[in-house]
Sequence to fold (149 residues):
Amino acid sequence: MILPLIQVILTALLIAYAGFWRRQQMKRRAKSWNAIISQLRCNDWGIEEITERYLYKSEVQVSTKDVWQRISGCKGLWTMYKNCPVLVQLADYAAEHGENVDREMLEGLRSDAIQIRLCVMLALDSMCFPRRRWEPRSMLIVPWPPIVP
Fold:
C-alpha cells in the first residue's frame, strides 16, 4: 500500500523538478548580454596592478601577502567563486549568438571557470581545515605533515 504512494510522490517530484529546470534554462537563454554582465560581482581590488608586476616584470615586487590583502582574503575568493558561473553563461551566449567566435577560446573560458571554482574550494578547505594540504601534482588532499613509517 505504501510503495505505490512513494512511487507516485517520487514521480511527481521528478516531473516538478524537470519543469523547474526547463523553466530556468529558458530564462537563462532569454537573457541579454548586458543582463548577464550585470550579474558579475564587483572586484575593486586593483588586481591589474598586481598582475602587471607579478606576471610581466622580471623582478617580482608583490608578495603573496600583498595579493591576499588586495583580494580581501576569503571574501575575494568567494567573489571569484560566484563569478565563475557568469563566465560560463557569457561563453554560452557568445557561442549561441556570436559570429566567427573562436570555439577554443570559449572552451578555455569554461574550463578556466571550472578550475577557478575548484581551486577556490580547495583554498577555502585548507583554511577551514589547516591540517590538510593540497598537493598540486597528485590533485589529492593529503594529511600534513606527511606520515612517514
